[in-house]
Amino acid sequence: MKFLMLRLTPAGIRRRWLESPQLRLIAENFGWLVGDRVLRMGFGMLIGVWMARYLGPEQFGMFTYVQAVIALFLGFSTLGLDTIVVQQLVREVGSKARILGTTLALRLVGALAALVASLLVIAWSRPGDHLIQLLAAILGSATVFQAFDTVDLWFQSQVQSKYTVIVKNTAFAVMAVVKVYLILSQAPVLAFAWATLAEAGLGGLFLLLAYRYQKEDPATWQVDWARAKSLMQAAWPMILSSLAVMIYMRIDQIMLGQISGNQAVGVFSAASRISEVWYFIPMAIASSVTPNLVAAKELGEAIYQRRFEQFFRLMVALALLIVVPVAIFAKPLVVLLYGYAYASAGPILAIQIWTAVFVFLGVAQGPWFVIENLTKLALQRTMGGAVVNVGLNILLIPRYGGLGAAVASLVAQIISNVVMNALDRRTLHLFWMVLKSFNLLSKSANRSGPGKGADA
């Protein structure tokens, strides 16, 4: 990964990267973040697979159904404030106490709103099912502790994400051991919910201790309601975007639970864990090459376009390296990981994994929308794709179950990240660039589409 990033970076920037202490600090910070994702997703999947085998499709489906409902409202708990707050912490060093205090207050209010919304949805969708309602109360309470991730925003502003990685992974490791013990002692499903809540609580506590370790005092934080108002005015598009993304990612599990029951959710979730574990890759790459793409815009339209074509082609190639073998060996892979109780997840995974190609492309297009100042258009695409996903789930799940949900997600991603580009003149040439990225054997073409020339 490191050599790939260096190769994509122009020679001048590469020299500055190697010579500048600040850029080396950024590289180190990025390395900590990627290492965190790899470690947590790798070991998290291992523990999750073991937990799924122990609980079985029915109880595992119940657990993941509740998590899917809670995930729908995560946008209200984070409020899309991360980037905005980090920018303010960098620009207004003297206002740190008011920025952090205000952010924590907003996130606590948002977390409580998310908890209440989740409980209401569970009560409406599963009336009389006291076990699943108790699961929702325990798992949903974790969002309150996650409000203390506000401390992480300060570490980000100081380019010191290693502290967040260390404390979060410490909490993760402690509770991973606890979950292994729960499996070996044949604990009930509620015990795993309490362990998840405890991990969120430990993570928040350890972050505060790390903040104190840096000679900072959270007791000095203050709430500035005028700043709170301005933060919310800036963040509302991100809240809507987060809601749309979560509909994309979790509505299939919720609708499966309502239409087909907990066991169908458990089987589908087993496939999802395998298909989604790769999604950190495009995000990590995009965050690394975005400065290169921004710089290319200043060098001329031809270079700018060529860089994006290369970026899209790289994403397709990486996605296919993952997708093809997983699709071919889907059923044996599911049985190997989860056991024969989940064998029916194999055909679902064989379809669902192809969604990764269009997820990779969707992430790759993100910088283009930011550079071109078309973020509202990107939000419209995301929301449009979410609507398509819901509509197709309504049509397909009653007849085809999890297979229908997998097809719905795949078609929605294709429409959102490819087809919708052809429906607006501002993104028509982006549509042609995306199509060309599937031709992995050619060099970057000289044109972005019919009738639109560019020097290669």
How are the elements arranged and paired?
Layout: H1 2-8, H2 11-19, H3 21-72, H4 74-78, H5 82-91, H6 96-125, H7 130-145, H8 150-157, H9 161-184, H10 189-213, H11 225-259, H12 262-276, H13 280-299, H14 301-328, H15 330-338, H16 345-352, H17 355-371, H18 375-400, H19 402-417, H20 428-436, E1 447-449, E2 452-453
Antiparallel strand pairs: 1-2
Helix pairs in contact: 2-3, 3-6, 3-7, 3-9, 3-11, 3-12, 5-8, 6-7, 6-8, 6-11, 7-10, 9-10, 11-12, 11-18, 11-19, 12-16, 13-14, 13-17, 14-17, 15-16, 16-19, 17-19, 18-19
Give a verbal description of the structure.
The chain is mainly α. It folds into 2 domains: 1-26 and 236-456, no CATH class; 73-223, no CATH class. Helix content is 81%, strand content 1%. It contains 20 helices and 2 strands. It has a two-stranded antiparallel sheet with strand order 1-2.
